[in-house]
Every structure is written in structure tokens, then in C-alpha cells.
């Protein structure tokens, strides 16, 4: 695993305009938050998969995990604010002991809850009751499926993952997810290689046709995400000699229309240890928020969610082409 400072050094050496400089030239600086709509919480890096593109560098060997004390602070922040959505991620967030506590407490507060699921976690014997648990609390499931073809998904996520993902999707469908019942099932696509995703609308049509006709699977929405030049994907770029080319692609594809919709303006990211970040990507690069409230405990004391976003060259990944966020394309 490349340390955060090494990743930042690699990105810095690629040259070209700075992200802040380009924002200033387009009259879009400074990048500031609007109303915080989503509290995105990374509960830890433990995962039952080791995906080649993972910007979290998650896997079965990771032991970073949110404690009950920090989870209670997350709930308290929801209680003290009007943030409408709790978005829980990992790792495989369901493997963290605090996952169900967070879901239950957020549901009691009437908040929309999103589970960022890798699908295969639903098949683990210890998670046999997970689908009913999610359905009973009407948790929105946003699930990774890089490709509707076996080769594409397995290339990123490991041999056999595609077939296991289909089994998990059928279980979700059987529980009512993606079937018009109000239980929302979203899928996430990201490219297999060092290129931008195709058009989100056309990809959604392709996914819907292929999954329905070949496998009898239904879903609600598809989100197309750009691979971020962070962690394992950055290591892949370095090994393949594609770092400069990929960063040049992101910079050349800069779309000013996507800037207003970048997730750091409407999201607040909380790390497994209670650290506060502008977004999940800054979290993985260990770039804390500007100001004094860099810890959840400090944020609870100050109550101030406004901030100027800290940016870097990785931010070109969110504004390239149609743009990219945890909710898919932006333009």
C-alpha cells in the first residue's frame, strides 16, 4: 500500500494546471460547501474482497474499525443537525459491529440510510439475516457491479465474484429491492481500465437489458463512477506506466459544468476513527478539513458544517467528462 504522502507526491509530479488554478481561471473558486445533504461514514477497512481498483485499499487483512463511542458521536451529529441522509461505507460496512447500530439509530431519527454494499457480503453465513434486516428498515442499497459481463467484474473484483453478485442480487430482488416496492437498489459501474466511463444513461439501458434478459435481475438506477487515481488504482497506473497519461486525460476532460455538483459541496465525510474530511477521497489521502473541527468531537462542539473544500490533483477525477460522485454522473 502506498502511503498517502507518496500518492500525493506521485500526483504532483504529473504536472499540468492545479485544480484550484483551473477553478480560479473559470471563476469557480473558492470551492465551498452548500447545505450538507449527506453524512458519509466510513466504518472501517475490513472487507471480504480485495478489489483491484479499491481507493480504500480495503481487504480481509485490514483491522481499522469504528468503535461504539465514535458511532454514538455520528448519531449525535445526526440528532443535532438536519442532515437528511446517512451513507455508510467501508470496506464492507456490514462487517463492522457498529453497522446495525448506525442503521437502527438513523432510522429512528427518520433519516434516509444508504448501504454501500459489495453484494458478496450478503452471502456470508454470518450475514444470513442481512437482507431482511436491510429491507425491514428500508435501507437503500447501492451495490458495486463494475460490469454486466463476468470477465469485466471478475477482472476487478476477483474470480467468481460476478456469479456470487448475481446470487446476491436475486436475494435482494426476492426481498422486494429494485421491484417497485420502494426498496431502492442502485448499481455502481466503473471502468475496468484507465479510461472514463461511458454515458450513464446508455450504460443503465445496457445493464438493465442484459441483467433482465440474461439473469432475470431488476434494479432502480445505475451510477457511473470514474476511477480515482488513489491507492490501488494509482498503483495499477504506476505499474502499467499510465499515470501521466491518465492524469492528462482527466485534466483535458475537465468539465466546469460538473463543479457545482461535486459531492464535497453537499457531503461531510467521517473516517472510522472520527476524523472529519471533505469527501471520501480526501479521507483516503489523509487530507483533513480546513479549520479547527478536524475531529468529530470538535465538530459536535462547534456545530459549524460550513467550510472551504481542500482540493488536489485527484479532484480532476470528479470533474472529468460527465463528472463523477458517489451518486454517479453530474452533468
Characterise the protein shown here.
By secondary structure, this protein is of the alpha/beta class. The protein has one domain: TIM Barrel (Alpha-Beta Barrel), CATH 3.20.20. The chain is 35% helix and 11% strand. The protein has helices spanning 4-13, 19-25, 68-80, 99-108, 130-136, 150-157, 161-174, 200-215, 231-240, 243-252, 280-284, 296-302, and strands spanning 38-42, 85-89, 112-117, 140-144, 185-189, 221-224, 267-270, 276-277. The protein has an 8-stranded mixed sheet. It is globular.
The named CATH superfamily: Aldolase class I
Order of helices and strands: HHEHEHEHEHHEHEHHEEHH
User: What is the CATH topology assignment?
Assistant: TIM Barrel
- Identify the CATH architecture: Alpha-Beta Barrel
Q: Return the domain count.
A: 1
Low-confidence stretches: none
Amino acid at each position: 500500500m502506498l502511503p498517502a504522502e507518496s500518492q500525493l507526491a506521485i500526483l504532483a509530479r504529473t504536472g499540468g494546471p492545479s485544480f484550484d488554478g483551473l477553478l480560479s481561471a473559470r471563476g469557480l473558486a473558492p470551492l465551498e460547501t452548500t447545505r450538507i445533504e449527506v453524512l458519509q461514514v466510513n466504518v472501517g477497512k475490513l472487507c471480504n474482497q480485495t478489489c483491484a481498483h479499491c481507493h480504500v485499499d480495503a481487504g480481509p487483512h485490514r483491522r481499522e474499525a469504528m468503535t461504539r463511542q465514535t458511532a454514538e458521536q455520528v448519531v449525535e451529529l445526526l440528532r443535532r443537525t438536519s442532515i437528511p441522509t446517512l451513507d455508510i461505507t467501508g470496506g464492507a460496512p456490514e462487517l463492522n459491529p457498529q453497522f446495525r447500530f448506525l442503521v437502527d439509530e438513523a432510522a429512528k431519527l427518520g433519516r434516509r440510510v444508504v448501504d454501500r454494499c459489495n453484494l458478496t457480503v450478503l452471502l456470508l453465513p454470518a450475514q444470513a439475516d442481512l437482507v431482511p434486516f436491510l429491507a425491514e428498515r428500508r435501507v437503500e442499497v447501492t451495490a458495486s457491479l463494475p460490469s454486466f459481463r463476468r470477465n469485466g467484474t471478475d477482472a476487478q473484483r476477483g474470480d467468481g465474484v460476478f456469479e456470487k453478485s448475481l446470487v446476491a442480487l436475486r436475494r435482494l430482488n426476492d426481498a422486494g429491492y429494485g421491484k417497485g416496492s420502494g426498496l431502492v437498489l442502485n448499481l455502481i459501474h466503473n471502468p475496468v481500465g484507465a479510461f472514463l466511463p461511458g454515458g450513464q444513461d446508455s450504460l443503465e439501458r445496457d445493464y438493465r437489458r442484459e441483467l433482465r434478459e440474461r439473469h432475470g435481475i431488476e434494479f432502480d438506477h445505475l451510477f457511473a463512477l470514474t476511477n480515482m487515481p488513489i491507492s490501488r488504482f494509482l498503483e495499477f497506473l504506476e505499474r502499467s506506466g499510465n499515470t501521466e497519461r491518465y492524469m492528462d486525460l482527466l485534466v483535458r476532460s475537465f468539465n466546469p459544468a460538473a463543479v457545482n455538483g461535486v459531492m464535497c459541496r453537499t457531503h461531510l465525510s467521517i473516517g472510522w476513527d472520527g476524523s472529519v474530511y471533505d469527501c471520501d477521497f480526501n479521507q483516503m489521502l489523509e487530507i483533513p478539513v480546513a479549520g479547527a473541527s478536524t475531529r468529530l468531537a470538535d465538530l459536535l462542539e462547534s456545530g459549524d458544517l460550513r467550510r472551504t473544500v481542500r482540493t488536489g490533483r485527484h479532484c480532476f477525477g470528479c470533474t472529468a467528462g460527465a463528472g463523477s460522485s458517489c451518486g454517479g454522473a453530474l452533468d
